[in-house]
């Protein structure tokens, strides 16, 4: 689904919708229950990510790339793309993929992995 293995795991285990699209309150509940985070810290993390990549018109956020499941986009300059949108909220920390600047960030790179 997306670049964050923790959020993917939460979706795989049913804490989040398997589609990878959730409301902020669902994300807060999921990280509190599954990762044992406190309410204040969970809200801080979720709403920081939601402000960067969520859709305030539909109150939905994707844990992956931009998807039609979040429905219509808000007006510019807002960006809706999920945490894997290049240039908004990301980290070059993958052990198996390259950064979008260097090529396809979703393709497995065996040389990098080894």
Task: Describe the protein.
- The chain has one domain.
- A two-stranded antiparallel sheet has the order 1-2.
- 34% of the residues lie in helices and 4% in strands.
- The mean pLDDT is 78.
- With 114 residues, it is mostly helical.
- It is built from 4 helices and 2 strands.
Topology of helices and strands:
Blueprint: H1 5-12, E1 21-22, H2 24-35, H3 39-53, E2 61-62, H4 110-113
Antiparallel strand pairs: 1-2
Largest sheet: 2 strands, antiparallel
Tally of separate domains = 1
Q: What is the H-and-E element order?
A: HEHHEH
Share of β-strand residues: under 5%
Number of helices: 4
Overall geometry comes to globular
Class by alpha and beta content? mainly alpha
State the strand order across the main sheet.
1-2
Number of strand segments? 2
- Helical fraction equals 25-40%
Radius of gyration, in Å, reads 14 Å
Distance between the termini: 23 Å
């Amino acid at each position: 689904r997306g670049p964050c293995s923790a959020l993917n795991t939460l979706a795989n285990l049913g804490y989040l919708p398997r589609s990878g699209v959730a409301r902020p309150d669902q994300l807060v509940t999921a990280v509190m229950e599954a990762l044992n985070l406190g309410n204040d810290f969970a809200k801080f993390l979720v709403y920081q990510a939601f402000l960067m990549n969520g859709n305030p018109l539909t109150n939905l956020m994707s844990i992956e790339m931009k998807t039609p499941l979040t429905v219509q986009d808000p007006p510019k300059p807002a960006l809706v793309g999920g945490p894997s949108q290049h240039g908004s909220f990301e980290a070059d920390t993958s052990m198996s993929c390259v950064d979008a600047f260097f090529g396809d960030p979703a393709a497995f790179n065996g040389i990098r992995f080894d």
